[in-house]
Design goal:
Distance between the termini of chain A: 36 Å
Order of helices and strands of chain A: HHHEHEHEEHEHEE
Structural class of chain A: alpha/beta
Number of strands of chain A: 7
Strand order of the largest sheet of chain B: 1-2-3-4
CATH topology of chain B: N-terminal domain of TfIIb
Bound molecules: zinc ion
Radius of gyration of chain B: 15 Å
Largest sheet of chain A: 7 strands, mixed
Largest sheet of chain B: 4 strands, antiparallel
Structural class of chain B: alpha+beta
Shape of chain B: globular
Number of domains of chain B: 1
CATH architecture of chain B: Single Sheet
Number of helices of chain B: 4
Strand order of the largest sheet of chain A: 3-2-1-4-5-7-6
Oligomer: heterodimer
Helix content of chain B: 25-40%
Distance between the termini of chain B: 25 Å
């Protein structure tokens, strides 16, 4: 099976039909839920304070629903109008933005307590057109994400790197933006279940990383 | 889009990053809807710390609400009536259709079906 990143840009790949198919698949739902819970675990948020969270590449709101269940308020952004339409149909609680993460996170400094992203940021490494230079898009994304998080705020993003080089590109851009940066790999020995999580922190916090 | 979000969202155009005029956006021709939400006083209190009160007052005025006090209220933890008012304004007031304009570059972002469109034309992206 080829990677969706190699077929077409996300706003074309996740058209109406694909968006519904993706969202209705119980296998997808199960995996997305598991990865969202794992991301929350890595975020290690203060459980006593309800938080405002950004969901980058929120899709049809599968991850957002878990944020809601955990008592958080969220804002999601996604480049696929069809995915967002599916989210609206499913009556998710979060606000939805039709936006390209590669042109930046359009929120003022210190807006979010934390941010998550499930299965999305590898798209930043794709050059669909001449203007879509991955380096420019990665830089724009991480610089604006850094700004939109409160000081000490964390980002955890599960992603599917096509190769080692993409991990280097992504972590490199995150570090240049000022983040403390690490990559957690779950089930590293399993080809099928291996999962990468980019863990970033914007400045220092009194909560452990 | 919840009223709360107007207090955070700014113009996405890179050349507007450094401009103070890229926040808040100017709201025009907006249709509002009220949608009931669970009352969570702890969340309102934690949001109030990061709310830009001047922006809240000016966006409320854009939307036809001129009854917001000019100063941010203090010690609201014990003031349940005020917490409920803020809850209703920030979380239950939804903008379902409308325009948001950047007061620096003039770019207009449209809200349709509650979803703001922040996709930039190629000459403004990056
Ligand atoms: Zn602007």
């Amino acid at each position: 099976m080829s990677r969706p990143e190699e077929i077409a840009p996300p706003e074309f790949f996740y058209n109406d039909q694909e968006a519904k198919k993706y969202t209705a698949s119980t296998r997808v739902q199960h995996i997305q839920a598991k990865m969202t819970l794992r991301s929350l675990e890595l975020l290690n948020l203060d459980p006593d304070i309800p938080q405002l969270i950004l969901d980058v590449g929120c899709g049809s709101g599968l991850s957002g629903e878990i944020l809601t269940e955990e008592g958080h308020t969220w804002i999601g952004m996604d480049i696929s109008a069809d995915m967002l339409a599916t989210a609206l149909d499913r009556d998710v609680e979060g606000d939805l933005f039709l936006a390209d993460m590669g042109s930046g996170v359009p929120f003022r400094p210190g807006t979010f307590d934390a941010a998550i992203s499930i299965s999305a940021i590898q798209w930043l490494c794709n050059a669909d057109t001449h203007s879509n230079e991955p380096k420019v898009r990665l830089t724009r994304f991480f610089n604006t994400l850094y700004g939109a998080l409160k000081r000490g705020g964390k980002f955890v993003g599960q992603f599917y790197p096509a190769n080692e080089d993409q991990i280097i590109q992504i972590t490199g851009a995150a570090k240049v933006a000022g983040f403390q940066c690490g990559v957690v790999i779950d089930d590293p020995e399993s080809k099928k279940n291996k999962k990468h999580y980019l863990v970033l922190q914007a400045g220092t916090s009194d909560r452990p990383l | 889009m919840k009223f709360l979000t107007t207090n955070f969202v700014k113009c996405a155009v890179k050349s507007c990053d450094a401009s103070e005029k890229s926040f808040p956006l100017k709201y025009e021709e907006c249709q509002l809807q009220s949608e009931e939400q669970e009352f969570n006083p702890a969340f309102i209190v934690s949001m109030l710390d990061r709310i830009d009160w001047d922006a809240l007052v000016s966006v409320a005025a854009d939307l036809g609400n001129r009854s917001i006090p000019a100063e941010k209220p203090e010690n609201i933890e014990q003031n349940e009536a005020l917490l409920r008012e803020l809850h209703s304004l920030l979380l239950e007031t939804q903008i379902v259709e409308g325009k948001m304009m950047c007061q620096n570059c003039g770019h207009i972002y449209y809200i349709k079906d509650s979803i703001p469109n922040f996709l930039l034309p190629p000459h403004l992206a990056n």
